[in-house]
Every structure is written in C-alpha cells, then in structure tokens.
Design brief:
This is Right-handed parallel beta-helix repeat-containing protein. The protein is mainly beta. Helix content is 7%, strand content 45%.
Length: 485
C-alpha cells in the first residue's frame, strides 16, 4: 500500500514539473527607446509596438510641439492639448513653459461652439492663452481656482448667440473660487433668449482674489437685460480681493454688479476695487450693493446710464469714490441708494473726491447712505440736484464746484450737521430759483455754510431753511465777490 502511494506522489510531482515547463513566459514590458519621432496626433495615438519613443514631435497645424512619455502616469485622460494617450495606454505630455494655447486643444475660429474644447482646456491647465481670432461659444465654461485665462487685448472676440453666459462658477457651490485672472477677452452678446446673467456670472461659491481686466463687451444686439460682470455673495459665503479694471463695456442692465443681499448684517464682501473702466449705455454702470467693506471706485469713465452711473447701495463701509468722470444722460449719475436698514450699519463715511462731469450732465446726485461723508474737490455741472438724506450726517464738503440748472443746487433733506467750506454753489441758469441751498426738515439742523461762493438763479434766495431746518452762515459771497448777509 505504501509503495502505491509513493508511486502516485511521484507521478503528481512529474506532472507539475511538465506543466511548469509548458507555462507561457511573462510578456516582455514595453521598452522606451531614447529617440524623438515625428508624428501626427492620430499616429501617436495609434502606436501599438512594444518599443516606443521617449519623445514625439507633433506636426498637426496649431498643435505643434514636443511630447515626452511619462511612464509613471497610468490615469491622465487624453485632452488633445497637453496629454496624448496611445492605444496601449502610454501617456505623452507636452513639454512647454508659460501658458498653454487653446489652439493645442484643436480649437479653430470656424468651430460652431468652442465651449466644450475651452472647458477641456480650462480643466487641463492653470494658464491658458486664447490665440487671436473671432470665436463662437454656445455652451458656458465653468471656472476653477488658480486659473489664468488671457488673450491679446482687442484681438480675441467671442460671440454668444445662444447663451448670455460665457464664464460661470462650478455647479457645486461648495467649491470655492480662488486666484483667478481673466485678461484681454472680448464678447459680443447676440443671444435672443430670455436671461438676466451675462458673460461673466459668479453666483454660489466663496471667492477670493479674482481679477477681470482689459476686457471688452457689448450686448447691443441681445434681446434681454443682461449684466456683463456679476458677482453674488450667497448666504454663508464670502468674497474678498475682487478687482475689475481697465475694461470697456456696454451692457443693457449693469456693466458691473457685486452684491451681498443674503448675509443679514454681515459684511461678507470686502476689498473690492472697480477702477479704470469705461462703462457706457447701461441701466447701471457700477452697482455695489449690500453690506460690503473696503470699496474703491476710482478713475472710471461712466457715460449714458439711464438709471445710475455709480450706485453704492446699502450700508457700505470704508468706501472711496475718487477721480471718476460722468458724461451724458442719467437719472442719477452718483447714487447712495438706501440707508442700510436691515443690511448692516453705517460706520464712518464715504470719501467722494476728485470726481467730475464732462460738459453738462443730465441727472443729479443722491446720498442716502453717505454717513460722515468727506466730499471734496469734485466738479459737477448737472441738470439735477445734490440731495442729502438722513443717514448722511456730519459730512464735510470742501472745495467743490456744484453747478445745477435746477431750482436748487443742494438740499439737506432731514440730513444734519454738515459743514460746507470754500465751495462754489450755483444754479445761475435757473429762472425759477427756489433757493440755491436748502436745509429742509426738523432734522436738517446745524448746517454750516462758511466762505462759499453762492451764485443764485433768478428769484429766490442764495440759501434758505424750511420745515424746521437751520443754517449757520458766515463769510459767504456772491458771483461778484460781495458778501451775502
């Protein structure tokens, strides 16, 4: 019996040995040969040999460049522009420095919709350059953090015939947007759809360090009322270090709107600069609304805005409105549109200095929310009035020229404790002058007029207090230099 078992074991061992000799050998891994082949994108993708080049020079027009194999990468997707994948799964990556070109991703000016390829490029790289040309975009592109999107200013035009939106935040509002630069792009919005968005629309995530500069846009051919740049701070989110500068825009609704309406009494938006822009033929040129902090609106040229040129709405803090020029037709070319009730509290005052009108400007100025405003060295010729309301109190008005064709040039309407020194205040051209300067209402008290040139229109008075208002006047004089009693 033992002998039989030994024979069986011996036979089993012999069988295993035979099978081991019959097993196929492991395949030889693909080898990388140190050479550079010249291929098209199609040819590279079709490589199926066990010997592959270490680099490939791509010859496709617009996509030319050197790609180097990355043997450690087993997962990157083929995106045409900077990653190409062979039939056997080898990843070749473009060797380059500086920005990637949108042309590398196969985009042509003849494309019916650059949206999908532009999205692929934005996803693939952090620094993207759009070659000169005119493009059509039908589908929006979602932005991401750490992105630079740039073009030669005035050399790239994106037409939007279907969607108002060109660039938008990610669908998931939990994904923040940080460190984004959009530079030199131009849009022509011709969409006939109904919408209230615009080429750049950010609504949902928290945002930090976003700059939009040297861009142009027009929606004169569009159907609906759209913005150009919109940034909404949603409830529980924040916005900081936002810069909109050196852009030229015509927008049917607002050229630039940044607002915080959903964070009750919370200054969730701060450090916002809108400067050096040319905004024209809009309903609003600039609107910064809700509890916002550290606002700078400087050196903008605002023309023909049917409602407001510059609007600071709500209880803004640390606001500077400086060196802006206004031309043409407005309802109000400068508007502080409410006292912030429910939107925070007014702390300090606006600084409004060095601003001017170009020629005679139709419209006027209202300040509901100026706080202890510092209003100096402005030069305004206007058809309207400088109107001050209750939450503008304790302001200092110095060295301004306020010329109005209305029956009054300035009215403090329930607005107290202001001081006016060394201003020229005139409504000389008005034939039905009520009073050039008026303090109106029981709260409009302690208004000081000192050393001002006051040039009244026909009839009326140089200054007057009505409805319980009071003025303390001294050393004021008329157009000829004569003292005004």
């Amino acid at each position: 019996m033992k002998h039989k078992v030994m024979l069986q074991l011996s036979a089993f061992v012999i069988a295993l040995t035979v099978l081991g000799h019959c097993k196929p050998a492991d395949p030889v891994p693909d080898s990388v040969v140190q050479r550079e082949d010249t291929l098209s994108i199609t040819s590279l993708r079709a490589i199926n040999s066990s010997s592959i080049p270490s680099s490939v020079r791509i010859t496709d027009p617009g996509s030319e460049g050197v790609f180097i194999v990355d043997q450690s990468d087993l997962s990157s997707a083929d995106n045409t522009g900077i990653v190409l994948v062979t039939l056997k799964g080898h990843r070749y990556k473009r060797d380059f420095s500086g920005p990637a070109s949108l042309a590398w991703f196969g985009v042509k000016t003849s494309d019916a919709d650059i949206g999908p390829a532009l999205q692929a490029a934005v996803t693939a790289t952090d620094n993207l350059f759009l070659p000169d040309g005119t493009y059509t975009q039908l589908t929006p592109v979602h932005l991401k953090s750490n992105l630079t999107l740039q073009a030669n200013a005035g050399k790239v035009l994106i037409t939007l015939p279907q969607s108002y939106v060109s660039l938008v935040n990610p669908d998931n509002p939990a994904i923040p947007l940080d460190h984004i630069l959009v530079d030199g792009l131009a849009w022509n919005v011709t969409s006939r759809q109904t919408g209230t968005y615009g080429p750049i629309y950010i609504d949902g995530p928290s945002v930090t360090d976003i700059t939009v500069q040297n861009c142009t846009s027009t929606d004169v051919a569009a159907k609906d009322s759209t913005n150009w740049f919109t940034l909404k701070v949603q409830a529980g989110k924040t916005a900081a270090n936002i810069t909109v500068r050196n852009n030229t825009v015509q927008a049917k609704r607002m050229a630039c709107e940044i607002f915080n309406h959903d964070n009750f009494n919370i200054y969730a938006g701060k450090d916002i600069t809108v400067s050096g822009n040319n905004f024209h033929d809009c309903h609003f040129g600039i609107s910064l609304s809700g509890p916002l902090d550290q606002l700078t609106v400087d050196n903008n040229y605002i023309k023909n805005c049917s409602l407001f040129g510059i609007e600071i709405a709500g209880a803004a803090r640390n606001t500077k409105i400086t060196n802006n020029k206004f031309e043409g037709v407005f309802d109000k070319f400068l508007e502080g549109s409410n006292d912030g009730n429910g939107n925070g509290s007014i702390v300090g005052g606006m600084v409004i200095t060095g601003n001017s009108t170009v020629g005679l400007c139709q419209g006027g100025i209202q300040l509901y929310n100026g706080g202890t405003v510092d209003f100096s060295k402005n030069n305004f010729r206007m058809t309207g009035v400088l109107e001050l309301f209750p939450s503008t109190a304790g302001g200092m008005f110095t060295e301004n020229t306020i010329e109005s064709s209305s029956n009054k040039a300035i009215i403090c309407d329930e607005s107290p404790d202001h001081t006016f020194i060394k201003n020229t205040i005139s409504n000389k051209t008005n034939n039905g002058n009520q009073a050039t300067f008026i303090a109106y209402g029981a709260k409009a008290i302690n208004i000081k007029l000192t050393n001002n040139k006051i040039i009244q229109g026909k009839g009326g008075k140089p200054y007057d207090s009505l409805g319980g208002g009071s003025i303390i006047a001294s050393m004021n004089y008329d157009e000829e230099g004569n003292p005004i009693p």
